[in-house]
Every structure is written in structure tokens, then in C-alpha cells.
Amino acid sequence: MKVVSFFHLKEVRWAIPEQEIAAIRAELPQVEICSVEDEADLPAAIADADAFVGWILPARAFAHAKRLRWVHSANAGVEAILYPEMVESDVVLTNGAGLHSVSIPEHVLGMMLAFSRNLHQALRVQARGQWDRFGVIVFGGGIRELAGSNLAIFGAGAIGRSLALLAAGLGMNVRVLRRRPDKPVPGAEAVVGPQDKLALLSWADFVVLATPSTPETVNLIDREALRAMKSSAYLINVARGDAIDDEALVEALRSGAIAGAGLDAFREEPLPPSSPYWSMENVILTPHVSGYTSDYFGRTLELFRDNLRRFVNSEPLRNVVNKRLGYVEE
């Protein structure tokens, strides 16, 4: 049984360590792990492979797969793999859902705390060597407390569910928007469907996007959505950049239609130097790092090895993606 490993994602390069490959070989001697370093070598390598593990299997390489039965993406978001050939095939797709259920919610909490205490402004005052106590207190909508604030979470995957519990523990009022509002979310006082989006936005002090990238979530936050939000509210995006209409958001930030935005994902990455987001004082930018944790690769391998054992033994796999919907159904 041949498994091709290819971990290239934009500027990030990684490979399964040799000691890990040796451990897999010792446990599952029938498995051969073939690590590919150059994307140009993928078509030949995948031609006789039974499985693939990595971040993205390019469509060009998938076209050469003759006996592929399983693709495991270490990403939670798998939109880059859902090309028509993959969706229409019998290949089972699994993903890294759950690997970021601690790091991303904590990143969101960090952004909400920074906005609540105006830490982003305090850092600018510090950089200028100024003592401006009043300026930090009143910047934007003024310093506030998270306790008692209203949090709207868009998405009820592992990230959204974990965030709901953390935020509720801090005394926030939490409501969640999901495709299936009949399914409760622990920590949330209410769960609503897409038809209630505008009402939810008008209620929230903080809006967090934690949705998968699907046709339904493209431009989820557009001009209409931004008009529905409070002028004192903050938008935080840890989903995908295409969930936001950037032009509409820039206008809303410049006009004060909303108080600010915390952005970790963008339509174009790296974010171009020409982006107006760089110079906006009511914006906190992070370079798509919310999912990073010091043990990310260890957790990635643990999930993959468990699924590999299941695959070899013809057992049900974890995190099977509904390829029509684009995510793991909870």
C-alpha cells in the first residue's frame, strides 16, 4: 500500500520526519510512505498511490491518480481540493478538523480582549513614547468589558463550538449561526439559521467568522451585513478571506459604520503592501497565524496515523468531509 506525502502550502514547506516514517513502517509494514519534495514529481508519484497526505493535492496531480482511494488534508478548510474531479470521484476525503479547536478560539479571545481594552491603540502610543491615558481610554468606542457583551459566532464546527464555551465562561452572551439551527451548541443561549443573519448582526457587539469556505459563505459579510451591525461592534475573521467583501469593509471602517476589525485571513495572501488595511488604526492584522500551535505537526501526524490504521484495517475514518457541502458534518 503506497501513501504519497506532500506538504507544500504557499511559503510553508514540511515533510514527515524520517523517524515518524520508520515508526509507521514498524507498525504497518504493508505501508510505504513516499515523500515528495517537488510538485513537479507529484503526478508520477501519485499514479500508483492508494492514499495521499498533505495540505493540498493539486488537480493536475489528481488527474494522474489511477488507484487513489483516500486523501487526507491536514487543513480544516479543504476548498482548494474540492475541484469537480475530486467531488465526483469515489475518493474519500478527510481533513484536520479539530486540530485548531484550541489555538484559533484563543486567538479570537486575544483579539476581542485587545479591542475591549484598546491594547492596539496603547501599543501605538507606546511606540510614539507618549503617556496618553485619556486617549487610550476613549479610542474607538472606548474601553469596555467582555463580560456582558454580545458575541455572534458564524459557524458551529470545532472552532465555533470551542469559542462558544470559552466566551460563555467569560460571561459573554453567545449566539451561533449555523446551517442546521436545530442542533444546539453548548455555551450558546441561541442557535439561528442563515435567514436570521441580519438580526443576529444587529444584536452583536462582536461578530466572529469561523465558517468553512463554500459558495454560500463567499461575501457573507457584504454591505448589507455591515449596515446591520452596530457602529460600536467589531468584526473578527478567522475563516477565509473570501467571506468578506473587502471594499465594503474598508468603507465601513473608514466611515465609522463599525468600530473595527480583526483579520487573520485574506483573499490575497500575502496581503499586498497596497492594502488599506495596513494603515487603519481600528484594524488588527495577523498574517494567517491563528491556527498555529507549537505542537501542530505532532497533532497532525497523530490524526493521520490513527486514520491510516483505520484505512489499513477497513475501519471508518475520522473527519470524513461531505464533498458536496465542503466540510465535516457535525
How does this structure look, described?
The protein has 330 residues and is of the alpha/beta class. The protein has two domains: 2-99 and 293-312, Rossmann fold (3-Layer(aba) Sandwich); 103-285, NAD(P)-binding Rossmann-like Domain (Rossmann fold, 3-Layer(aba) Sandwich). Helix content is 32%, strand content 16%. The chain has twelve helices and 13 strands. The chain has helices spanning 18-27, 42-46, 59-62, 84-88, 103-116, 119-127, 133-138, 158-169, 197-203, 223-228, 246-255, 296-312, and strands at residues 2-9, 12-14, 32-35, 51-54, 70-73, 92-94, 150-154, 173-177, 190-192, 206-209, 234-237, 260-263, 283-285. It has a seven-stranded parallel sheet with strand order 9-8-7-10-11-12-13, sandwiched between helices. Strands 1, 2, 3, 4, 5 and 6 form a six-stranded mixed sheet that branches. A hairpin with a 2-residue loop joins β1 (2-9) and β2. α5 packs across α8. It is elongated. The protein starts with a strand and ends in an 18-residue tail after the last helix. The model has no long low-confidence stretch (mean pLDDT 96).
